[in-house]
């Protein structure tokens, strides 16, 4: 089977996303690869598709049990034979899994790194051909990363111990050069094909709010999110407790997660969230790594985190399935102080560092906090700011962040600049300079007496901007002055004069852009609510069915179908299994398993809404 058929038949997707195909091709040609792609980009498919095509088994190393379990249930529900080996298995389950593995029943085995050195793993390696070893969340191998796991250091030893060296593929969302070098070195990657895809997540709406009363704002936001699920991040455990209690008192289904809770409670609360029993998770940054819940619709930061890396990682847990999702930061000046305090305090935590090293580290942390604060107070496009921080160029207007939507937008004023400068030039030809108001009046075509008496209504530039508001023209004149294309003489009566650069506008027609407050606010928002009212009724019914099926199978709802698959059902409106396969996210196995149930609802909907098909 070729890669596209695998993609369609097992995963139900029609095409590869950017980067996926290249990585897969290199793996299939036998090359090691390193994929650096943001959260939600679809790294799993990059190794799962070739795993189904290679001759032999793929061992996937993954840091967290929850993550493994999730991936494996998702694969199994798509009809792929996979299993995991970790400490959560009972002795019986473990021997059963091993038994089946030895018979070569699995295409993919997910293993915790701790398991690699065991007797059984060695036995398995000698009995079954391991064609690829994949390291997910590969940054865990780097001591510079925030998620360093010592057990990851054993991976290269395991790879070397195999009778035939497998293809090694590594994946992470962490992009810094140090971490990347560490991954290549520590895992012993062999001239890996390295792919770094853009870090943009176009479906995420970024916004910064500066509410007087954070809790009231939080409540307002949560009410607006209806029964969608999301995460509220706080800086401290105490904050988590307080906010979670208040939300519960106010009738919101919230649960909590932080390092101070017992293992059991943490696990239970996490499951409540993943299985949609509680739709709001209030947590510290301890929550999230390895949470693959793909239908998180919002991530609200109740406090500003300590740096942009953390922010982007945490916020990025929203909208993994590609559906529109919101990342909202509630900023307060107090957050800067709290973070500063925590940074200074961290001096005492790192006992193994020398004083000098500590100084360097603290300075770096302070600098990062400053950048984070710039983000929170920026009036420019937030997405551009963030991508710029990670070294990526982006346009100054994304249309999907609070600054672009409610703040400012970059507008081309090249032609206006030519009109304005040539107006100043014409006036000068009359032998005089005038102030800003006169220039604006001429361009606007005003009939004010003085203007007419001076004969300026005869100028070729008279009225050539009559459809532009006076306020806008004035702003543009100011902008040209700020940028040196015109100047404002400083005298008793300030007049607008030409400068040495004015010719660039008139003769060279150089492009000029200006940032202006957005005139229409609603447009972007409207485009984004894709579902019409009728669709949302159907969507709701499909969602309920999904919930029922998930509960019956004891898996999280998004393992059955993602929100974006449900949305596609509302678009495609399939009424039989054949058509059901056309839905993005529906593969063969899922069509067989769930097709009838979903099609039944859609059929009913279609027959009661004649004309929709
Ligand atoms: P990552 O590990 O990079 O954070 P995942 O592998 O968990 O991301 O994938 C995120 C989401 O993207 C999943 O819901 C997955 O089904 C979806 N996805 C991945 N590849 C595709 C594709 N080619 N077409 C449509 N959806 C995709
Ligand atoms: Mg992943």
Task: Please give a structural write-up.
With 613 residues, this protein is an alpha/beta fold. It folds into four domains: 3-196, 3-Layer(aba) Sandwich (Rossmann fold), CATH 3.40.50.300; 204-407, Rossmann fold (3-Layer(aba) Sandwich), CATH 3.40.50; 409-517, Winged helix-like DNA-binding domain superfamily/Winged helix DNA-binding domain (Arc Repressor Mutant, subunit A, Orthogonal Bundle), CATH 1.10.10.10; 536-608, DNA polymerase, domain 1 (Orthogonal Bundle), CATH 1.10.150. It has a seven-stranded parallel beta sheet with strand order 3-4-2-5-6-1-7, sandwiched between helices. Strands 8-13-12-9-11-10 form a six-stranded parallel beta sheet, with helices on both faces. It starts with a helix and ends in a 5-residue tail after the last helix. Residues 43-44, 136 line the site of magnesium ion.
Assign an overall shape: globular
Q: How many individual helices?
A: 27
Bound molecules: adenosine-5'-diphosphate, magnesium ion
Computed over alpha carbons, the radius of gyration is: 29 Å
Number of strands: 17
| Residues in β-strands, percent | 5-15%
Estimate nothing, just give the exact number of structural domains: 4
Mean pLDDT: 89
Oligomeric assembly: single chain
Strand order of the largest sheet: 3-4-2-5-6-1-7
Distance between the termini: 34 Å
Q: Give the CATH class of the largest domain.
A: Alpha Beta
Describe the sheet with the most strands.
7 strands, parallel
Structural category is alpha/beta
């Amino acid at each position: 089977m070729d890669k596209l058929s695998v993609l369609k038949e097992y995963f139900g997707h029609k095409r590869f996303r950017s980067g996926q195909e290249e990585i897969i091709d290199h793996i299939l040609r036998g090359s090691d690869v390193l994929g650096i792609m943001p959260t939600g980009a679809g790294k799993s498919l990059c190794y799962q598709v070739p795993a189904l095509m290679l001759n032999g088994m793929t061992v996937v190393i993954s840091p967290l049990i929850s993550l493994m379990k999730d991936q494996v249930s998702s694969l199994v529900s798509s009809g792929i034979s996979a299993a995991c080996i970790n400490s959560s298995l009972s002795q019986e389950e473990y021997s059963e899994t091993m038994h089946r593995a030895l018979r070569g029943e699995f295409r993919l085995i997910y293993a915790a790194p701790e398991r690699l050195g065991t007797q059984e793993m060695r036995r398995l390696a000698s009995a079954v051909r391991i064609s690829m070893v994949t390291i997910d969340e590969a940054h865990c191998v780097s001591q510079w990363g925030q998620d360093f796991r010592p057990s990851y250091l054993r991976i290269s030893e395991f790879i070397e111990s195999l009778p035939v060296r497998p293809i090694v593929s590594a994946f992470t969302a962490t992009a810094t050069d140090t971490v990347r070098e560490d991954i290549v070195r520590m895992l012993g990657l062999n001239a890996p094909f390295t792919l770094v895809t853009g870090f943009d997540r176009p479906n995420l709406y970024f916004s910064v709010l500066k509410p007087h009363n954070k809790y009231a704002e939080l409540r307002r936001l949560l009410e607006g999110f209806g029964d969608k699920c999301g995460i509220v991040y706080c800086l401290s455990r105490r904050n988590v407790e307080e906010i979670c209690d208040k939300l519960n008192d106010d009738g919101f289904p919230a649960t909590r997660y932080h390092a101070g809770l017992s293992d059991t409670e943490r696990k239970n609360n996490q499951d409540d969230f993943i299985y949609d029993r509680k739709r709001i998770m209030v947590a510290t940054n301890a929550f999230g790594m390895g949470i693959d819940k793909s239908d998180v619709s919002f991530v609200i930061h109740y406090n500003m985190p300590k740096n942009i890396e953390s922010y982007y990682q945490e916020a990025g847990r929203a909208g993994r399935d590609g559906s529109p999702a919101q990342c909202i930061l509630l900023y307060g000046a107090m957050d800067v102080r709290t973070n500063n305090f925590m940074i200074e305090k961290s001096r005492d935590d790192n006992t193994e560092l020398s004083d000098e090293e500590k100084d360097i580290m603290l300075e770096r942390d302070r600098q990062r906090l400053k950048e984070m604060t710039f983000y929170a107070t920026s009036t420019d496009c937030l997405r551009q700011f963030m991508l710029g921080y990670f070294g990526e160029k982006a346009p100054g207007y994304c249309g999907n962040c609070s600054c672009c939507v409610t703040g400012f937008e970059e507008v081309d004023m090249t032609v206006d600049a030519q009109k304005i400068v040539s107006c100043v030039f014409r006036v000068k030809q009359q032998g005089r300079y005038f102030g800003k108001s006169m220039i604006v009046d001429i361009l606007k075509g005003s009939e004010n007496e003085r203007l007419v008496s001076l004969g300026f209504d005869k100028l070729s530039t008279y009225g050539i901007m009559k459809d532009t508001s006076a306020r806008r023209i004035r702003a543009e004149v100011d902008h040209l002055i700020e940028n040196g294309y015109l100047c404002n003489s400083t005298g008793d009566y300030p007049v607008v004069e030409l400068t040495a650069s004015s010719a660039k506008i008139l003769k060279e027609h150089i492009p000029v852009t200006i940032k202006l407050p957005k005139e229409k606010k609603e447009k972007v928002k409207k485009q984004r609510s894709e579902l019409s009212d009728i669709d949302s009724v159907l969507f709701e019914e499909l969602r309920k069915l999904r919930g029922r099926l998930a509960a019956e199978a004891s898996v999280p709802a998004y393992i059955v179908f993602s929100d974006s698959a449900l949305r596609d059902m509302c678009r495609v409106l399939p009424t039989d299994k054949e058509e059901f396969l056309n839905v993005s996210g529906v593969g063969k196995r899922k069509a067989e398993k769930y097709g009838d149930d979903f099609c039944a609802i859609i059929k009913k909907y279609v027959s009661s809404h004649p004309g929709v098909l």
